[in-house]
Design brief:
homodimer, mainly alpha, Arc Repressor Mutant, subunit A, Tetracycline Repressor, domain 2, 11 helices, about 75% helix, about 0% strand, elongated, DNA-binding, TetR_C_Proteobacteria (chains A, B), HTH_TetR (chains A, B), transcription cis-regulatory region binding (chains A, B)
DNA sequence: GATAATCCGTAACTACAATTACTGATCCTG
DNA sequence: CAGGATCAGTAATTGTAGTTACGGATTATC
């Protein structure tokens, strides 16, 4: 099998494993079930990934990178920070509360090695937060843009993620996502007056 | 065994199970390990709790109630909402990021039935949030105190819990807890001007 | 005190998942 | 095209955890 073909095959395996993880949970996602789902043999899986933890590391890495890549803002959006956040906020909520990310977080919660959590945090938050910090650095001239990032994320997401992971919350719908993002942005601009006041009027009166 | 003695024995079992959960994680907390840790027989555990999920439901319920009870504010503290939050905020952070709650959340994340998550959410958040909402209702005369609760919790905790659960964060130390609570309170008071402005001067200048 | 119920310590049973091994089919390379 | 490497399908091995069963010790009740 050539490198290109193996790469595509690995991706197929890693995506199938995530689908199983989402559908059946961590405990029920076995090497045998992955092999069956993708029409591969156990011997191949063990040869390519070493062992089950190895498969899971690769699977989490590949999938979280892809989800992360769908989140990154292009440099062009930095020209209008408000518009950038208006677009980014809902996307971030949707991804972080998605069934896929919830399943990945659950796998990390169950992983005694800590590897999965490390991969998720470094690849996910570790990429998104600096980007937000960069945006706030430009938009707000604050001496602590990283702190603004924490505040924004707190306002935007609150404890959604833990509630999703412990199974006490369905994914938020599009309306709720929109409202949540708008509220977070509105509150952020009230807290940091240097924020460009280019909010649509419908948002500026959302809070008494 | 009399009712009183059995009640005490059950509590001993449920506490020992939590200690094992904290120390070894969900996967390694077996019926056999619980029995051994507390000097009970498997037959007794199965007779009293039915099965492993039953033991876990009881264990989570008993322990989360105890943790919750240590968090509730007395009615007397409502007289001074700021002081109440200054005292409550750090306590809430400390408890929610503790090894015990992290272990319980991890068990819930691994539980396909959803029962553990339900118990945790209803007993924990379900008790704390209404209390906060009541406090904000008095302190702020807002038309939506429940929304203020969400905002406060977002500012106070952000994504600490999920980061603890996936293993990417140690428990915050006392200084960090204090700073986090003070910041959340300061930001909340800036957002909602009806908030009594009785902050100590050291806090009011904490943000430029 | 005698008897029944309960609990402890331990063995046994069953199912299942991780991993390795094997054979034959398929693919790749020279 | 031939030979070697790789992969699929499947069986086998091993260890472990959930659960049940059993005999003896302890406790509770009459």
């Amino acid at each position: 099998m050539r490198q290109e073909a193996q790469k595509a095959r690995r991706k197929e395996i890693e995506q199938a494993a995530l689908a199983l993880l989402v559908q059946h949970g961590y405990a029920a996602t076995t090497m045998a079930s992955v092999a069956k789902a993708v029409g591969a043999s156990l011997e191949t899986l063990y040869k390519w990934y070493g062992d089950k933890p190895g498969l899971f590391r690769a699977m989490v890495q590949a999938n979280i990178e892809e989800l992360r890549d769908g989140l990154l803002m292009s440099a062009a959006t930095f020209r209008d920070p408000i518009a950038a956040l208006q677009e980014f906020g809902p996307r971030l909520i949707a991804v972080l509360t998605s069934e896929e990310v919830v399943a990945l977080n659950r796998a990390a919660a169950a992983d005694p090695s800590g590897d999965l959590g490390r991969i998720i945090a470094e690849t996910g938050r570790g990429s998104i937060a600096p980007q937000l910090t960069g945006l706030f650095d430009r938009a707000m001239e604050s001496d602590d843009p990283a702190q603004i990032t924490e505040i924004y994320l707190g306002l935007l997401l609150g404890d959604l993620q833990i509630r999703r992971v412990i199974g006490r919350m369905p994914p938020p719908d599009a309306t709720e996502i929109r409202q949540r993002s708008d509220r977070a942005l509105e509150l952020l601009c009230r807290l940091f007056p240097a924020c460009p006041s280019k909010l649509p009027s419908e948002i500026s009166v959302a809070f008494a």
